[in-house]
Amino acid sequence: MTAGLKTIIALSFVLAIGFLLIILSSALWQNYFPLLVAATYVIAPLPNWICSRAASHDDFMESSGNGIVDFGRFFTGFLVVMGIALPALLAHCGIIVFQAMVMSIFGGLLIYGTIISFTMFFQEEQDF
Q1: Would the CA dihedral through 40, 41, 42, 45 be positive or negative?
Q2: Which domain holds residue 74?
């Protein structure tokens, strides 16, 4: 029980640091475009989760079509890459400064990594 509690506390600490970096990247330079990265990383795991739930799991046929699962992984990957590319594009265009770009990308990766770590540590095993 304590290992689960320690894991939750550590993950919440890392998540708070990620959100703090994104908020500071916006607030320090009075430009709130880097907040789009937080939204991108928060919704990034949703396509993977929805598509994995929608896929039919058949015990008898292992080679069933995984098109829905592949689409979910593709769209999740697209959102993660967009979370990195959007601040780089904004910095390249001069809308945000370079330091805000670095803080936004690093904070977003911390947020996404925390979400993925939480799902990996606390997923339930299915018994048939």
Answers
A1: positive
A2: 2-55+65-121
